[in-house]
Write a structure and sequence with these properties.
The complex is a heterodimer of chains A (378) and B (287). Chain A contains 15 helices and eleven strands. Chain A is of the alpha/beta class. Chain B has a single domain, classed as Orthogonal Bundle (MetI-like fold), CATH 1.10.3720. Classes of the chains: A alpha/beta (378), B mainly alpha (287).
Chain lengths: 378, 287
């Protein structure tokens, strides 16, 4: 999905790869349950309804997912609950891959039973790869805001959050503005989740700094300049922040999505980890679900989407919420009462008008970073 | 050196009768192996380096190599490889000599070899993190200011696996030095300096340069250690290749990665050619 926490995931990756290879030959491609070809289904109704979809998916028995770290937006639990509910085995391929690597994987493995059935990708990759996706509308399609979905259902916003600063209040006191980070008590302490020319989370971290410095979403230069000042002050720590570096105390101030910056995800006691979202720089970002149009398990892929976008108590939307992420159907679920109120209340407070990058804005930011980021911080 | 002459003498068995020469069959596994794991991947890399993102042939990936970030990555790779392989080779050779001059069946030697075998493989994220947590900017032991300097800081971290590797590959050459040669030099009135200058040094030089070359290549391809050490700047070429493969913000270009890899192949070819010429020269007078 991105370039997240490599430490400790290597072993897990190896294990899941082994299991993926182990059962690779058992799954059959092209669904034939009841004669209906689910790879052509654009909704559950078009194939005979949800129960027909469940039957076909159970017959396939397996689902290949890719780039879903267990500690990312509660995916560990989501996968477990999906398997418990439908008895479908989930092969979690390469949990720490980036969105770009997800697309490469299906390009290389399509035609085999090892290709990923479903993807969870950032906006840049989603819009650039639509020719590889199958159009599909989940049952709750109307609950998803129009701005978060491709009108043809080629990709659909699933969950998101706001860019935040996680830090230890016991060590630094309360942070109320980003410019405080330029102070001398933050020597070598401020880190990003990745390199902004490679990772979405890091690019948005720089963009948040840009907005906080009075910049606009169309211009990331102020953010690059902020990190230049951080570097000059000796406060920018250029190792990638991970739960391991946070535990070791080497990256005590971290720019990251709020759902990756919670005390439980980074493994800190709640008293030692606080999340701050600047009121003048509320920058949101969503990830997108897409179905591989050549998915080896087309029915299971579609059932997975129905599960992820379900508003049930044990459905994807509430499970993401439990992981600190904001599900795309949050507004609709709040008004129809299906949302888990305790989890919703536990989200970090957001004030000010949220900003979401449009695709041209994200592309402009990446182009500017490619030319200017290395200079600014070396 | 002595083993080489021995095999030369033994390589000409007396042939009985006239059979078609089938000795080449023995090289088939080797040729198949290098073909599949060396030549084929190299060919694919070269082929793809000239492909465009939307198909078709292009030189744009190659011309893109002549940009400031790529030039600095190649410069960084060369600096890091030279520093870590020279320091690693010299210190490793001295250590190997110390080990070789001890008891050949002693505990110390076995301990050193076992330790070197483990540490030569100790790299990647684990190594970078061990240094980071111990002597990094917020280290437990000390806050070393050289830690984050390029190329010296990371070069010294690389030495952590380069020196043990040198001990492992260079020790057999030192073991090959015969005590009689030293005695002969002394009988002829030579000093320790004379022995190393005219006998030991020249005999070990081909093995030494070969081992140093191995360390150079080892450092050239190392990726995980430096990526965990420095995430924001692409100091070396493998980091740039990674960026061109994984960027999810729209900057990924697989074929640019192939072009960068082609650049690394050129570096290795140049270094190997230099090594080959050096060895040929050494072999001439050793004859």
């Amino acid at each position: 999905m991105r370039t997240p926490y490599r430490l400790g995931l290597a072993g897990l990756t190896a294990l899941t790869l082994v299991s993926a290879v182990g059962c690779g030959s058992t799954s059959s491609s092209s669904s034939s349950s009841g004669g209906y070809n689910w790879s052509k289904a654009t909704s559950a109704a078009s194939g005979g309804g949800l129960s027909a979809l469940v039957t076909a998916a159970k017959k396939e028995g397996t689902l290949n997912v890719i780039a879903l770290p267990a500690d990312w937006a509660n995916y560990g639990t989501i996968i477990k609950d999906f398997t418990a509910k439908y008895g479908i085995k989930v092969n979690s391929i390469a949990p720490s891959d980036s969105s770009a690597q997800e697309v490469t994987q299906i390009q290389q493995k399509n035609g085999t039973s090892l290709a990923a059935d479903v993807l969870d990708v950032g906006g840049s990759v989603a819009t650039a790869s639509t020719s590889l996706f199958a159009p599909y509308e989940v049952a709750t399609w109307s609950s998803i805001p129009a701005g978060l979905k491709n009108p043809n259902g080629l990709y659909t916003g699933d969950y998101g959050g706001y860019m935040s600063v996680g830090y230890n209040p016991a060590k630094f006191g309360t942070i109320t503005s980003l410019s405080q980070l330029l102070g001398s008590k933050f020597k070598n302490d401020v880190a990003l989740n990745g390199n902004p020319t490679e990772a979405n989370a890091a690019l948005n971290g720089v963009m948040m700094a840009s907005l906080a410095q009075g910049g606009t979403a169309g211009n990331i230069a102020d953010g690059v300049n902020f990190f230049h000042q951080l570097k000059v002050a000796g406060n920018f720590n250029t190792t990638q922040a991970t739960p391991a570096t946070i535990k070791a105390g080497t990256t005590p101030v971290v720019f990251n999505w709020d759902y990756l910056n919670t005390a439980s995800v980074v493994g800190q006691p709640a008293s030692d980890w606080k999340v701050f979202i600047p009121s003048n720089a509320t920058l949101g970002g969503f990830y997108y679900q897409a179905i591989n149009k050549d998915a080896p398990h087309p029915a299971a892929a579609r059932l997975w989407e129905e599960f992820l976008f379900s508003q049930a108590a044990v459905g994807g939307q509430n499970l993401w919420l439990a992981g600190g992420a904001r599900p795309s159907e949050q507004v609709a679920m709040t008004s129809n009462g299906t949302i888990n109120k305790a989890d919703a209340a536990a989200l970090p407070p957001v004030v000010g008008t949220p900003v979401f990058l449009t695709q041209p804005q994200a592309t402009a930011a990446a182009t500017y970073l490619a030319a200017n980021w290395p200079k600014a911080i070396s | 050196m002595t083993t080489a002459t021995a095999t030369q003498a033994g390589a000409q068995p007396v042939r009985a009768g006239r059979r078609p020469p089938l000795a080449w069959i023995g090289t088939l596994p080797f040729l198949a192996y290098t073909g599949i794991f060396l030549l084929l991947p190299t060919g694919i890399v070269i082929w793809n380096a000239f492909k465009g993102t939307s198909g078709g042939w292009t030189l744009s990936n190659i011309t893109a190599l002549n940009t400031a970030p790529v030039r600095s990555a190649f410069k960084g790779s060369l600096e890091l490889c030279v520093i870590s392989s020279v320091i690693g080779a010299i210190l490793g050779a001295i250590l190997a000599y110390a080990v070789a001059s001890g008891n050949p069946d002693g505990m110390i030697r076995r301990l050193y070899l076992a330790g070197s075998g483990v540490l030569a493989q100790f790299g990647g994220v684990t190594l970078a993190f061990a240094f980071l947590a111990t002597i990094g900017p917020a280290g437990l032991l000390l806050h070393a200011s050289w830690y984050s300097s390029f190329p010296w800081g990371i070069g010294l971290i690389y030495c952590y696996f380069q020196i043990p590797l040198m001990v492992l590959v260079f020790l057999p050459a030192i073991d090959g030095l015969k005590i009689q040669w030293r005695e002969a030099a002394e009988n002829l009135g030579g000093s320790t300096w004379h022995y190393w200058r005219y006998v030991g040094g020249p005999l070990l030089m081909p093995a030494f340069t070969g081992a140093a070359l191995l360390l150079f290549a080892n450092a050239l391809s190392a990726f995980a250690t430096i990526e965990a050490w420095e995430n924001q700047i692409n100091y070396v070429v493998p980091q740039s290749i990674s960026g061109s493969l994984i960027s999810e913000v729209g900057l990924a270009n697989v074929h640019q990665g192939d072009a960068l890899a082609l650049g690394l192949i050129v570096v290795v070819v140049i270094v190997m050619t230099g090594y080959f010429l050096l060895q040929r020269r050494a072999a001439r007078w050793q004859g």
